[in-house]
Amino acid sequence: MKVLVSVKRVVDYNVRIQVKSDGSGVVTDGVKHSMNPFDEIAMEEAVRLREKGVVTEIVAVTIGGQKSEETLRTALAFGADRAVHVKEEGDIQPLTAAKALAAVFKKEEGKLFLLGKQAIDDDASQTGQMVAALLDCPQATFASKVEVEGETAKVTREIDSGLETLDIDLPAVVTVDLRLNEPRYLKLPDIMKAKKKPIDAMSFADLGITPGAGLKVTKTSPPPSRSKGVMVKTVDELVEALKSKGLV
Amino acid sequence: MSKILIVGEHAEGKLNAGVGKVVAAAQGIGGDIDIVLFGDSLGEVASQAAALDGVAKVCTVERAENAKPMAAILAPQIVEIAKAGYSHVLFPGGTFGKDLAPRVSALLDVQQVSDIMAVHSASSFDRPTYAGNAIVTVEVPAEPMIVATVRLASFTAVGTGGAAAVEAKSVDASLPSHTRYVGLEAQRSDRPDLQSAPKVVSGGRALGSSENFEIIFKLADKMGAGVGASRAAVDSGYVPNDMQVGQTGKIIAPSLYVACGISGAIQHLAGIKDAGTIVAINKDEDAPIFEVADFGLVGDLFQIVPELTEKL
Ligand SMILES: Cc1cc2nc3c(=O)[nH]c(=O)nc-3n(C[C@H](O)[C@H](O)[C@H](O)COP(=O)(O)OP(=O)(O)OC[C@H]3O[C@@H](n4cnc5c(N)ncnc54)[C@H](O)[C@@H]3O)c2cc1C
Prior knowledge:
The structure holds 2 protein chains of 2 kinds.
Chain A: E1 2-6, E2 9-11, E3 33-35, H1 37-51, E4 57-64, H2 68-78, E5 82-87, H3 94-108, E6 112-116, H4 127-135, E7 139-149, E8 152-159, E9 162-169, E10 172-176, H5 188-194, E11 199-202, H6 204-207, E12 216-221, E13 230-232, H7 235-244
Parallel strand pairs in A: 1-4, 1-6, 4-5, 5-11, 6-10, 7-10
Antiparallel strand pairs in A: 2-3, 7-8, 8-9
Chain B: E1 3-7, E2 10-11, E3 14-15, H1 18-29, E4 32-39, H2 43-50, E5 57-62, H3 71-82, E6 88-92, H4 95-108, E7 112-116, E8 118-121, E9 124-129, E10 134-139, E11 146-150, E12 165-168, E13 179-186, E14 199-203, H5 214-223, E15 226-229, H6 231-235, E16 256-260, H7 266-269, E17 277-282, E18 295-298, H8 301-311
Parallel strand pairs in B: 1-4, 1-6, 4-5, 5-12, 6-11, 7-11, 14-15, 14-16, 16-17, 17-18
Antiparallel strand pairs in B: 2-3, 8-9, 9-10
Helix pairs in contact in B: 3-4, 5-8
The structure holds flavin-adenine dinucleotide (FAD).
Flavin-adenine dinucleotide sits between chains B (204-206, 230-233, 244-249, 261-263, 265, 267-268, 271, 282-284, 287, 300-302) and A (13, 37, 120, 178).
């Protein structure tokens, strides 16, 4: 069974985001980037499914400029067999990304598409669901457990009211949540081996995609800052403070 | 003029409190506001939706397949209804809307707006990115339609003095059988719902075990508060996942938030930026949570929390 995993290069989750003073965006130059944490979990899950003998081939896919190749190499070090690089610069919106990913999935005749539940840069949480819609196949989002049995999968989803389980036919799209697994620590030999694995480059044009009009960001601003509060010394002081504000 | 369709979330005969907040966001856009509900027996929920102020019409689509909300099954039906002249399709921004809205967007071939937190006009909105560390203003093409989810913590629900007409609808869409509902392991509690509670007490990794977490529950019960947790507390198995507050958990806006033994990572803060008053209890005086707290108390929570419970 062939699994596709999409991986996105994003600003590292530990970076303190700085909004540019002219409101034109956030500072990304010279800032540490890494693979979207949820995509690492998707990669890890693919590798575990292969270790269980369910999966035979893992193909990592990214959409982005030259630098995204680093992210693909990380995916290859995790254990992807091959990678596909849809080489496109600039801001790529979820529906456009989904169209490219769906096209790659079709071309590869994949059985399962694993994606992170959201990218920690735009926080949109859209792409996986859109890929599923475009492929007209099942979707199971926010997965915390994935069990593949033959031509179906049982997926447990983390939703607001608890843990929901769906039974879906393959091919299917699954987006993963933080709790699904803990990604392994990459070992140097695997990182070296990844350098030799093949990456196919293609463009939107090769996939027959024309990005349409999308959302236009007209301004980026920092969130309203909270003013620094007061430190109290004792529980009594805290109780007094809360009482005086009418909160307790 | 805008014609807005809101997809109503509900469970067990109760309309989700978030729907009233989506109506508030829709009023910011302006125009006719309709709510559509999917289910297999919608009488109760329809009357709750009809009571929301500012709603013109409630449409119900009753069908056995709609008994549980599954995106693959609801999306084609929503598309059918939306195509009858709606300019906007809005969803509440919880997991229900996050799961469903993008599927609808893709079927309609439009880019979606996630987590509207402010409305500037019928086609311009603010939304958070980078865990709420940057707010972007977006201008969205109005044609053919705008699909969006609404960040619930940013809006106050409308009142319930309305009396909208309720209309049963049948939708002619073929539905897939590739997705089957197995079950829900719901976390039942008598405590106020985390997302709508005016007060929330949360615990972090510092609690150390689910037994120790009891002191958080006790404090919450004394205050009549909902209970939340950091990701670390959830990952360590002290409490269930649906209690997680933050970028990838629940975004909440209580008037009082009490963080006990939580460091204040940006991913956690993303969930509480709109809280009225934040109280932090932490033994590390340099914990980042103190940078956003209105009241900070440095000390061991195993002493402070029980003492606070007692003194309130
Ligand atoms: C992609 C991604 C998404 C994430 N999403 C979320 C999210 O939605 N929500 C979330 O919460 N986290 C999220 N995280 C995790 C986040 O980065 C932090 O790891 C997490 O919030 C830390 O939880 P904590 O503060 O409970 O634990 P810690 O960081 O371990 O902090 C524990 C705190 O307790 C204090 N303490 C210890 N003992 C005591 C005591 N006896 N009395 C008083 N204080 C004490 C310590 O001083 C410390 O400040 C995410 C991470 C990633 C990578």
